[in-house]
TrEMBL record, chain A:
Classification via Pfam families: Fer2_3, Fer4_17
Catalytic activity: a quinone + succinate = fumarate + a quinol
Cofactor note: Binds 1 [2Fe-2S] cluster.
Superkingdom per UniProt: Bacteria
Enzyme Commission number(s) from the entry: 1.3.5.1
All residue ranges annotated as the 4Fe-4S ferredoxin-type domain in the record: 139-167
Subunit-structure text: Part of an enzyme complex containing four subunits: a flavoprotein, an iron-sulfur, cytochrome b-556, and a hydrophobic anchor protein.
Enzyme class: oxidoreductase
Source organism: Acidiphilium iwatense
Metabolic or biological pathway: Carbohydrate metabolism; tricarboxylic acid cycle; fumarate from succinate (bacterial route): step 1/1
InterPro entries hit by this protein: 2Fe-2S_ferredoxin-like_sf (IPR036010), 2Fe-2S_ferredoxin-type (IPR001041), 2Fe2S_fd_BS (IPR006058), 4Fe4S_Fe-S-bd (IPR017896), Beta-grasp_dom_sf (IPR012675), Helical_ferredxn (IPR009051), SDH/FRD_Iron-Sulfur (IPR050573), Succ_DH/fum_Rdtase_Fe-S (IPR004489)
Protein name listed in UniProt: Succinate dehydrogenase iron-sulfur subunit
TrEMBL record, chain B:
Protein name: Succinate dehydrogenase
Cofactor section: heme
Subcellular localization: Membrane
Key word Transmembrane present: yes
Keywords on record: Heme, Iron, Membrane, Metal-binding, Transmembrane, Transmembrane helix
Pfam family, one: Sdh_cyt
InterPro entries: SQR/QFR_C/D, SuccDH_FuR_B_TM-su
Superkingdom of origin organism: Bacteria
Record function comment: Membrane-anchoring subunit of succinate dehydrogenase (SDH).
Length: 243, 109
């Protein structure tokens, strides 16, 4: 680490949903991430500061917070790239209950993964022969594109439709469902399509692409959801699902 | 919004697109030919074709608009889907009644 060159005023959310921002002065260093700043405050100024992280390298998806109004993975967000007028404001992710300080309660987010049938349902057993999967088939490509989600919740926090309709499954759960309906090894296709076609399902999406704009993995949940709408309509017209 | 409502909303929109083109063409024709109200009525009154065309248009527009209204009431009005559906159904029924009345006024002899 290089020498501290100057300081930065950073406002961190403190308390529950009825909390408020508190401002701290922290040393500004080269190549500092937003997570580094939050950690510095906890180690040097206030050990009661609560926040969540694990891998620090953009793999686990646990460190997302609202940084100057936008959802971001804080471990891979350089402070110098997001500073506005010399200020940094960090809050918990939006569209989720606040546990304390910078830690949002991600339970509703993951409950919706379950509601969208986000679990792989094997169609074979371990005694069956391994099924060869061609990597360049269109369905496999679609599944592979969507599968890199790290469950960070940035898209969910950025989605207006989630804010307006608390029952909306949201971009991440639907993107996961899209990945699975394109997996030829999965056996839960029809009931998954029924789940994402119900009230609160994929048809609520307004296609305004905030999710795609904010996904740190550069995934495109909007496109996945458009694909689900198409499959859902085919299944509805054929009478395979009723909604 | 579920698959059934989506089907009816997008389906009604798709059917209305060509009808809107016809509707606009009729307006342009009537204005460019400087048709009077009496001349227009003489063409529409007793016409089964115009009655069916605009009758279907009213039904489709009412379906489309009431499903959209239900969404707006849910998302921006914070109504539960049941009450939003009830309000939107009343709105849709009113659109049908007013629209069919207007169609009747120009096609009934
Ligand atoms: S495109 Fe759909 S899922 Fe993505 S932010 Fe917009 S409404 Fe939400
Ligand atoms: S789709 Fe992107 S933004 Fe959404 S949870 Fe997955 S990785 Fe995060
Ligand atoms: S700490 Fe794991 S993604 Fe940021």
């Amino acid at each position: 680490m290089s020498e501290a060159v100057s300081t930065l005023k950073v406002s961190l959310w403190r308390g529950g949903s009825d909390g408020r921002f508190k401002t701290y002065t922290v040393p500004l260093k080269a190549n500092q991430t937003v997570l580094d700043i939050v950690t510095w405050v906890q180690r040097h100024l206030d050990p009661t500061l609560s926040y969540r992280f694990a891998c620090r390298v953009g793999m686990c998806g646990s460190c997302a917070m609202t940084v100057n109004g936008r959802p971001r993975w804080t471990c891979r967000t350089h402070v110098t790239k997001v500073i506005q007028n010399g200020m940094l404001e960090v809050a918990p992710l939006a569209n989720m209950p606040v546990i304390k300080d910078l830690a949002a309660d991600m339970r509703p987010f993951f409950e919706k993964w379950v509601a969208a049938h986000g679990t792989f349902a094997a169609s074979k057993t371990r005694t069956d022969a391994i099924e060869p999967i061609k990597p360049d088939e269109p369905a496999r490509r679609a599944a592979d594109e969507a599968i890199e989600c790290i469950n960070c919740g940035a898209c969910y926090a950025a989605c207006d439709t989630v804010r307006w309709n608390p029952d909306y499954l949201g971009p991440a759960a639907l993107n996961r469902a899209w990945s699975l309906v394109n997996d030829v090894r999965d056996s839960d296709r029809t009931s998954r399509l029924a789940a994402i076609s119900a009230e609160g399902g994929c048809h609520n999406c307004h296609s305004h692409q905030s999710c795609q704009e904010h996904c740190p993995q550069s995934l495109n949940p909007t496109r996945s959801i458009a694909g689900l709408k198409r499959l859902s309509m085919q299944a509805f017209v054929r009478g395979e699902i009723n909604a | 919004m579920n698959a059934r409502l989506y089907f009816w909303q997008r389906g009604s929109a798709a059917l209305m697109v060509p009808m809107i083109v016809v509707h606009l063409a009729v307006i342009f024709y009537a204005t460019s030919q400087r048709l009077t109200a009496a001349e227009i009525l003489s063409r529409t009154q007793g016409s089964l074709a115009w009655g069916l065309f605009y009758g279907a248009f009213v039904l489709l527009a009412s379906i489309h608009a009431s499903i959209g209204t239900r969404n707006i009431l849910c998302e921006w009005g914070r109504l539960k889907s049941g009450s939003a559906g009830a309000v939107a159904s009343v709105f849709g029924a009113a659109l049908i009644a007013l629209g069919l009345r207007a169609v009747a006024a120009v096609v009934l002899p």
